[in-house]
Design brief:
Layout lengths: L5 E4 L6 E4 L1 H9 L10 H16 L13 E4 L6 E4 L12 H23 L1 H7 L29 H7 L1
Antiparallel strand pairs: 1-2, 3-4
């Protein structure tokens, strides 16, 4: 199908603009059904207005509205607002309790990762472990030297995997 430049009228300003053959080809490739309604200046102006309204707390983007629910914190009991609708039977935390809980869980996981890396650090921080818990490595070389680098997948490997 051959495309020819067409002249369209902008719905906002009423000026005529050219809908080029290249734009028409693009619209066909993207399977757009309708021709553009606005000229480029009006389209960019409209986009800028929508972006500023979204940034300033105006209309929500794409019609999505956030539900704000007032509820009581399960930990400390103060009244708080959450950006979701709480479900029954699940705890709801205020910002401060949530922050305390996440930092506590992060701190709880940090010693575990350090303790699994070297048996000496575990022995220093915990009571005497059972003899079967930590078996020393046969060699004194670090475990990182024994690791294989990740192998790149070639098209032949991909074909053989199928």
């Amino acid at each position: 199908m051959d495309f020819v430049d067409r002249i369209l009228t902008c719905t906002d300003c009423g000026c005529e603009f050219i809908f080029t053959a290249g734009e028409q080809l693009f619209f066909q490739d993207k399977q757009f059904k309708n021709d553009p309604k606005r000229c480029k200046p009006c389209k960019s102006r409209r986009g800028a207005q929508a972006a500023s309204a979204a940034n300033s707390g105006g209309l929500p983007a794409a019609g999505i509205s956030r539900t704000e629910t007032r509820t009581e914190c399960s930990e400390c009991g103060i009244e708080t607002t959450v950006p979701f609708k709480p479900t029954q039977g699940r705890p709801v935390l205020c910002r401060q309790c949530y922050k305390n809980k996440t930092t506590a869980s992060a701190a709880a996981t940090a010693p575990q990762t350090a303790s699994t890396s070297s048996p000496a650090s575990v022995a220093a921080t915990s009571p005497a472990p059972a003899a079967t818990e930590f078996a020393p490595a046969a060699s004194s070389a670090p475990a990182a030297e024994h690791r294989q680098p990740p192998r790149k997948l070639t098209p032949a490997d991909a074909a053989s995997a199928i």
